Amino acid sequence: MIVEGTVLRGREFEPVEGRVVVEDGEITAVEEASVDSDAIVCPAFVNAHTHLGDSIAKEAGEGLSLEALVAPPDGLKHRLLREADRDELVAAMARSLSYMEQSGTGAFVEFREGGVEGVHAISAALSGADLESVVLGRGTVEAMEVADGFGASGANDAEFGAVRRATRQAGKLFGIHAGEVDSSDINPALDLDPDFLVHMVHAEALHLERVADSRMPVVVCPRSNLVTGVGRPPVDALYERTTVALGTDNVFLNSPSMFREMEFTSKLYDRSATEVLRMATVNGAEIAGLDCGLIEPGRPAKLVVLDGDSDNLSGVHDPVRAVVRRAETADVERVVLPG
Ligand SMILES: [Zn+2]
Q1: pLDDT tens digits for 252-271?
Q2: How far is CA 180 from CA 35, 230, 235, 288, in A?
Q3: Residues 127 and 68 in one domain
Q4: 119 and 15 share a domain?
Q5: What is the pLDDT, as a whole number, of residue 182?
C-alpha cells in the first residue's frame, strides 16, 4: 500500500511531500517525491485516557459536582452504569469506538469499570474494531488479570498496595488518577510507583519535583477538568519535566475526539503545535507500551489521512498547526489501521 501527500515524518512531524510505503501493516519507507495529492498524512492519534463505559450517559448530570458525577460507588455515572443492561452498554461503547476511529484515533488506553465483567464487555465492543486497545481493569486483581493492567480510581479511595504488586508481577500496566480534585492523593499515588498518573491538576512544587525525579509520565485531560470545574492542569510545567500525553476522559463529559482535545490544549497552553501533536500520538503510545504514534520505517502503519484541500483546510500554510488547531473529523479522508 502507498499513501501519498504531505507526510508528517518522524518525531518532529517534519512535513515532507512524498509517500508512505506500507507492507503487511508496517511502514517500510517514507519517500520524498513530487506527488499529485493534497492529503496530509499524520500518525493516527493515541487517546491516552478514556472511560468508554459512560457512553451510555452522554451529557447527563448538568450542574453536578465532580464527586456527584463520578465518585464510586454512587456517583451518577456509576448508578447509570449499574442500571444499564449489558447489551446496551456494549452497543454504546461500540458506537464510541467507531467514532474514535472515524476521528483519526488508532489506539487508546481505557480505564474500565465493572471488574472482570466490565473488561469482557469492552472486549465484546471491540470485536471487529481495528483500534488498538489497552484496557486497564478496576476493582479486583482478577480484573487486572483478564485485562492489560489495572486502572486505579485514586489513592484516597482504597488501599492499592496488593494490586500494585500483583500488577507488577504480571508485567502489566498500572495507572492511577491523582490530583484531580485536590493535591491530597498525589503523594500516595506516587508512593505506589505507578507506570503513569492521570490529571495532576493540583500538582504543587514538591509533586512536580517528584515527577521530574522519577520521570513519571502524566496523562492530562484539560477539557474534562474544565467541564468538572476542578481547574486547569499545569501542562507546561509537566511537559518540561516528563512525558505528557492527552486523553479525552469520560465520554459522558466530552466527545472522544482528539482533534478537540488538541485544539483546546494548543490554544490554552504555550506548547507548540508539534509538542501538542506529540502529546496526542507518540507520547501516549510510549506510556502504554505501544509502538505506534510516529511515521517512520519499522512502525505499525496507523495513519490518519486528511483532505488538505477541504473547505476547512484549503490554503493552510502550516500542516502541523492545521492538524492540531483547525482540523476536525469532517476533514478525515481515511484512517489506515492494520486490522
Ligand atoms: Zn479518568
Answers
A1: 999 999 999 999 999 999 99
A2: 47, 7, 13, 21
A3: yes
A4: no
A5: 97
For residue 198, the CA-to-ligand 1 centroid distance in Å is 7
- The CA 108 to ligand 1 mean position distance, Å, reads 13
- Quote the number of domains for the chain: 2
Q: What is the mean pLDDT of the chain?
A: 96
pTM of the model: 0.97
Taking the centre of ligand 1 as the mean of its atom positions, its distance from the CA of residue 328, in whole angstroms, is: 24
Cα 262 to averaged position of ligand 1 atoms, centre (Å) = 18
Distance of CA 149 to the CA centre of its chain: 16
CA of 71 to the centre of ligand 1 (A): 11
- Within this chain, do residues 178 and 71 fall inside the same structural domain, yes or no? yes
H-helix or E-strand spanning residue 86: helix 86-102
pLDDT tens, position by position, 92-141: 999 999 999 999 999 999 999 999 999 999 999 999 899 999 999 999 99
- Give CA–CA dist 59/62, Å, rounded: 7
**Rounded distance from Cα 112 to ligand 1 centre (Å):** 9
Centroid of ligand 1 to alpha carbon of 154 (angstroms): 9
Determine the distance separating the centroid of ligand 1 and the alpha carbon of 220, expressed in angstroms. Answer: 10
pLDDT at position 61: 81
Task: Round to whole Å and give the CA distance between 82 and 163.
Answer: 24
How far apart are the CA of 263 and the centre of ligand 1, in A? 20
Q: Residue 88: give the domain boundaries.
A: 45-288
Say which residue the cell 505499525 belongs to.
300
| Tens digit of each residue's pLDDT (9 = 90 or more) over 202-252 | 999 999 999 999 999 999 999 999 999 999 999 999 999 999 999 999 999
Helix axes 86-102, 115-126, angle to 10 degrees: 50
C-alpha 250 – ligand 1 centre gap (Å): 6
